[in-house]
Amino acid sequence: MARKVLNFIGLSVLLFSCLSQDKTQDSLIDVGWSIVEDSDRIALQDYYSHSNYLVISIPEEQPFYTADKIQSGDGKYFLGDIDLENTILIVDDQGQFISQIETGGNGPGEVPRMEDFVFHPDRNSLLILTGWKIFEFSTTGEFLNVISLPSGDLFHFIAYGGENKVWLYTLPFPSEQLPSDEFRMLTLYDLDDDEKVYSYLEVPEGLRAEVSGEKELTLQHGRVILTPAHGSRAYSVSIKGDDSDFVITRFSSLPQTQNLFGLQDLGEYFEKLQDDRGIAFLDNYIDSEEFSLFMMIKDGLYPRWGVLEKRTNTLYLTQSLFDSNLGLPLLPYLDVQDKKVFKLLDSEYFYEILEQDIDGQVSGKLKANVPQLMNQENKLLLCIYEN
């Protein structure tokens, strides 16, 4: 590993008055590192002590491609293929097919189009966000209820927010003026009382339209975390009680690309990435007491994984994050729910990997760890990591 010593920025916490509509205090945490080490690859097992593998068995005719979001609860796993098939696959804790929630209908109990979904443990149900409404389903896929959100409010991402509450995130309007000065991007909503509890996160100055994508809200160790694509910051809110605190974690050692949204289209965005080697922002962010994992650092068009070990204040950078048990690289997307990290490896992934497996090393490890996977035509493997 090549070591590069940076000026130590350190960690500082600044309390300042809240800019949102409630009276709670916000905390700004500046995070830096004293050492940077480059590595050829980083094994996920270096940070998670337990690795479990679940072979998913579904009928061949089921419309499912891959998982954009993964949730677990009630002894089941919920695999959301949001972008392509716009569907949720439900399997038991052995990977066996239970049912599937499909979208595209406009009749009673039918979901027109899913933006995001979440498992709500207090209600023991799935909440599917369509933008203006939330459709509630049982954990076996039966329609239960529909909840209409406040008139005029459009939301894109949803996360668990405590007893009968959810956190909702809305992307900024792609217009020159916001609806009002009170517009906020992050909202805590009470499902029983049908009202907003808190609203946070003003729109950064100059923010106009979303061109680079957003990471959905995630529940991590009792906090809801958002890492939007317009800066090197992570926003987190506690789900304990009504006096939620709002914390901004700013990675000061990264170039402060506060706003990439002033660009007019994707072409300008990619041109900016190619020209500016210093552009960096957080993506796929996972945090714990010991480390911050998976900061996606953009170096030109080449993503780099980062792992910040908090005890040694060292940032490890690599272009390859992999599973050492299976000997397989993990592509640039992981999901997290509380203390578990998920990755679904799909048929297309295995086709490409096995085609290159000339010496049979990968096949050998797969047969040793998940022998039943090799007998399936439609290969779906859910990897689960936790401590």
UniProtKB/TrEMBL annotation:
<protein>
    <submittedName>
        <fullName>6-bladed beta-propeller</fullName>
    </submittedName>
</protein>
<dbReference type="InterPro" id="IPR011044">
    <property type="entry name" value="Quino_amine_DH_bsu"/>
</dbReference>
<dbReference type="Pfam" id="PF17170">
    <property type="entry name" value="DUF5128"/>
</dbReference>
